[in-house]
Design goal:
The structure is a single chain. With about 90 residues, this protein is of the alpha+beta class. The protein has one domain. The chain has four helices and three strands. The protein has a three-stranded antiparallel beta sheet, with no helix packed on it. The longest helix is centred in the middle third of the chain and has 10 residues.
Length: about 90
């Protein structure tokens, strides 16, 4: 059985001009909720390795980035205890 994980959804794309809301899926009512508490530490470490996603100016020579790519609202959602999947 294959499961699909939602990274971006319509509600998470609101107010983000770089993310096309037109192409974002709605999470169906029949989504499967899975607790990932044990995996969350690893997921957090992996996310914070991608410095441009979570820090302003992640590298000394990177002068054009004025804010992290991901905001606190999205990071909280991404690192929540439960993840939604569909078959």
């Amino acid at each position: 059985m294959a499961l699909q994980f939602f990274i971006w959804t319509k509600d998470k794309a609101i107010g983000r001009p770089e993310v096309s809301q037109k192409n974002m899926p709605l999470v169906p009512r029949r989504a499967i909720r899975i607790n990932i508490e044990k995996e969350r530490v690893i997921k957090r470490k992996a996310l914070y390795e991608m410095r441009s996603q979570v820090y302003k100016k992640p590298y000394p020579c990177w002068q054009k980035q004025t804010q992290p790519i991901l905001d606190h609202k999205f990071i909280s959602y991404f690192l929540s205890e439960d993840e939604l999947f569909v078959k």
